[in-house]
Design a protein that fits this description.
The structure is a single chain. It is built from 5 helices and no strands. By secondary structure, it is mainly alpha-helical. Helix 2 runs antiparallel to helix 4 and helix 4 packs antiparallel against helix 5. The radius of gyration is 17 Å and the shape is elongated.
Length: about 140
């Protein structure tokens, strides 16, 4: 479910990047509201993964698929951190806060947000795919 929220938000972010300033501002507000359900989804995924690991640790700890999926989850968390930082920077720009000297332009921040949205979409898909492979491998 958290992945569904994330993918929907990623899609809307990519559309907003090509839109005008009003739609961009609305998307930044929506992004601020979607972080909680996405993080809840990630927490549930990690908790269920730990329970699955506890149920069959001998088999799963030797599975390369498990380690790849854990690596993908780590990348997803790191990407989410960059996305939140970028969203905060863009929100500050939209509220009129002055950027520091030498700071990125708004368009550069939007390019970064679009990149992290694409990465998020791909990583959520790969995590789901990894879970499917992990189920068949164990």
């Amino acid at each position: 479910l958290g992945g569904g929220f994330a993918i929907a938000a990623d899609r809307a972010t990519l559309r907003a990047r090509r839109a005008g300033p009003d739609e961009r501002a609305r998307q930044l507000e929506r992004l601020a509201g979607v972080h909680r359900p996405v993080m809840t989804g990630l927490a549930v995924a990690v908790a269920s993964g730990l329970l699955m690991l506890a149920a069959d640790a001998d088999t799963l700890l030797r599975s390369p698929v498990l380690w790849v999926k854990l690596g993908l989850l780590a990348l997803l968390l790191a990407n989410g951190g960059v996305m939140v930082r970028t969203q905060h920077a863009l929100s500050a720009a939209h509220t009129g806060a002055r950027p520091a000297a030498g700071a990125r332009t708004e368009e550069t921040w939007w390019r970064c947000l679009a990149f992290t949205s694409r990465a998020s979409f791909a990583l959520w898909f790969l995590v789901l795919l990894g879970g499917t492979f992990l189920r068949t491998a164990s």
